[in-house]
Amino acid sequence: MPIGKLRIIPLGGVDEIGKNITVFEYGDDILVVDCGLIFPKEDMLGIDLVIPDVSYLVENKERVRGYLITHGHEDHIGALPYVLRQVNAPVYGTKLTLALVQTKLQEHGIDDVHLQVVQAKDTLRFDSFTVQFIKVSHSIAGAVAMAITSPVGTVIVTGDFKVDYTPIDGEVTDLNAFAAWGTSGVLALLAESTNVERPGYTMSEQKIAETFHGLFRTASGRIIIAMFASNIHRIQQVVDAATRFGRRVCFIGRSMVSVVRVAIQIGELKIPEGYLISADTLDRYDDAELVVLTTGSQGEPMSGLTRMAYSEHRKLQIRHSDLVILSAYPIPGNEVMVARVLNQLYRIGAQVVYDAIADVHVSGHACQEELKLIHTLTKPKFFMPVHGEYRMLWQHAQLAQAMGMDPKRVVIPEIGQVIELGEDSLHIAGSVPTGSVMVDGLGIGDVGNVVLRDRKHLSQDGLIIVVLAVDGCTGALISGPSIQSRGFVYARENEALIEGIRSLVLGLLRSVQFQQREWAALRNLIKDELHTYLYKQMRRNPMILPIVLELDVGDRD
After folding, report:
1. d(Cα 66, Cα 128) in Å, to the nearest integer?
2. How many whole angstroms separate alpha carbon 357 and alpha carbon 150?
3. What is the pLDDT of residues 49-86, one digit of tens each?
4. Is 471 helix (H, G, I), strand (E, B) or coil?
5. What are phi and psi of 365, to 5 degrees?
6. pTM for this structure?
7. Where are the alpha helices (DSSP H) in 47-194?
8. In angstroms, rounded to a whole number, what is the distance separating the alpha carbons of residues 259 and 264?
């Protein structure tokens, strides 16, 4: 470590939406801000989620002093159960954030992690760092920004935020704290970039309450609302509207039920006695007495709303008298799935309300004018846009320069890049190993590009399996070849093609002499010749899997 230098290393969260994790390093101390995941892209077949490669932290785990968490969304806490198994250190966050973290750790059977609850304005002290937490508004309760002070200077990390002057919990973004740090001097600002493409200001969450009240007032049947389970403030607004209009509230969906249970336990969500009911008791109430909150605002195939829409849910199916509200924007990439569910809801005849029709969702991220306000208040020497795809980072950098920042003091970071800051200097000092680790079931990192390429090949072209049994002593054919087609052609309707494959393989066995146990060469020959034959016959290129079973003479019986 260079003496007198602060190193900032993003291990995720730049040039992508999600997987947020940033390393702050000074001397022998490392602090990690956030530890999130990202959901797989469409070409990551079978992958459940993607987490950051933290091999750099593993190599330096004795120096990691703690994880500082800005808020409880999956893209900021989702990787913790996986990373803490490798690099165990205390986790610091607000009450709801750590309650959600603890639930995750329990699900993974992890019970040896120290969790320390902090509040806005609290200060933590480490050997080389002091950290102050700053209240910000977001689409989940308990969100904070951070002022991380090292001997070199103070870095402001905004986390995800917006400037909401009328938040549901009454606790506005602490602009005074940002201004105070700006007055005392800010070395660098790391600000989120998710909504930098949007001019103006983000609408207040209070606007949603007005819309809900109007919809509840005129609804005559059941009201079914799909939203993000983590949006406790939005859920509270639904509960308030339900109690006002005499409706019982039911939660459906594993993540929805889990988050709501945690929020009620810690006092972040308040439901009057007698208004909370279970899915098992829905049939006891008239339609006009019910509000159901569920998952599925992104059209996920196994989510509550999707299964209700296609009559696959055990407890509830959508019918034409229902009012269905999608209280969320489609995440980029999910538009097709959301449209599919909307179309199905319209086929049923339900009344459907979503963001294109009414104000049923507002973003939790700052638009341009709010970002400008934070830049103005903090007056940083250096600026690094984070939390966004490259075009967003670039536009945020342009916004900073338009406000007067020297382009030489603005850097668009890359994953794994080591950014060294002095009291009045910034330069790129190489990079550390980083990337993405794919989680598939219980497998962590055992699926790489080769496996994904095979899965894509199988999904597009199918599979042909050729099975031979040969005498281990003489190499003579004992049985086969047996031809199996999976996802390529239906064998019963393509008997001529299957017979052609069998004849080709038999011809290869007759024309080529193989020495004993040269089965690898035989498999490769079958694979190459079949590729050529099938492409000529079908103009397709399936995966070909030759299997040669070597049997002893005694095995024939």
Report:
1. 12
2. 49
3. 788 999 999 999 999 999 999 999 999 999 999 999 99
4. strand
5. -115, 150
6. 0.81
7. 55-59, 74-77, 80-84, 95-107, 175-184
8. 9
